[in-house]
Amino acid sequence: MIRYILLSSFITLSFALPYPELNSAWRTYKKVYGKSYNPLEEASRRIIWENNVIRVLKHNLEADLNLHSFKMEINHLTDKVPQEYFMMNGLKRTNRTNSYTYFSAPSDAEFPAEKDWRKEGLVTEVKNQENCGSCWAFSTTGSLEGQQKKKSGKLISLSEQNLIDCSDHNNGCNGGAIDDAFDYIKLHGIDTEESYPYLAMRQDRCFFDKENIGATLTGYVDIPPGNEKELFKAVATVGPVSVGINADGYGFMQYGSGIYEVDGCDPHELDHGVLIVGYGSENGKDYWIVKNSWGPSWGEDGYIRMARNKNNMCGIASMASYPLI
């Protein structure tokens, strides 16, 4: 009860923003995350930050009382309003009438209770899409990097910028579809990250160079929409799988740790491309291990554990696919 009285007092005082006792914390936040603002912007960013800090504190107090399954934390997005955050969620559905190939697990396949493809070297470091709606490109490269490693034994980081600049059926930082990106790679291949580095913006031209191709593919396989059982089998046997999710759910932007399970996260409103790299269970709660593209300072070192077998939480099984090479 005392903790809630203190929190209520803090919230009341915060309406006289900026709250002076947070001056030191604000300076530290800017230093840690390399933030700088012009004088006109600083005051508004401070207010946004303080309001988000209050939400984080309130949520974590409730989580301590077992009212939530995950904790929030202050991160590099804490000074942003939802509209800015939503701009990073650039996943689109393909408008093309492709002939889909749906996943079917081998009859003799084994499905372990836990799986983490990071431990088998199929996952590159966590990347950062920055202020660009290019999540679809990061999800695409992630699953292809895994399949390339399985086939060649070499883990090669692939170029998201290549897809942003050159995938004509997608719209660069304004969004794109994972399967359309697979179609582009099928036709052309994709350059390595080293040869075609990320700039977090759409360039005026495509700089793809076939001499720098890091991977190719022959096609791709879609998981039957909404089928978590088939998605589980694919992740267990194939490797990392590209998926779309609804990232507008409560607390996603400030996710810190734990198993993300929330109410009202519409499984049909997909807006963010991510990568499932495994699955497991903790204290009787099943989860997916999901790699995000918001840098390693977000979540659990750049990852989030999302509830599994919870009615397709946030649409995680609604649009899933992986490449064939």
Automatic annotation (TrEMBL):
One of its GO terms (biological process) is proteolysis. SMART domains: Inhibitor_I29, Pept_C1. Residues 1-16 form the signal peptide. Residues 111-324 form the Peptidase C1A papain C-terminal domain. Gene3D superfamilies: Cysteine proteinases. InterPro entries: Papain-like_cys_pep_sf, Pept_asp_AS, Pept_cys_AS, Pept_his_AS, Peptidase_C1A, Peptidase_C1A_C, Peptidase_C1A_papain-like, Prot_inhib_I29. Residues 26-85 form the Cathepsin propeptide inhibitor domain. It comes from the Eukaryota. GO terms for molecular function: cysteine-type peptidase activity. Keywords: Disulfide bond, Hydrolase, Protease, Signal, Thiol protease, Zymogen. Belongs to the peptidase C1 family. This is Cathepsin K. It comes from Trichonephila clavata.
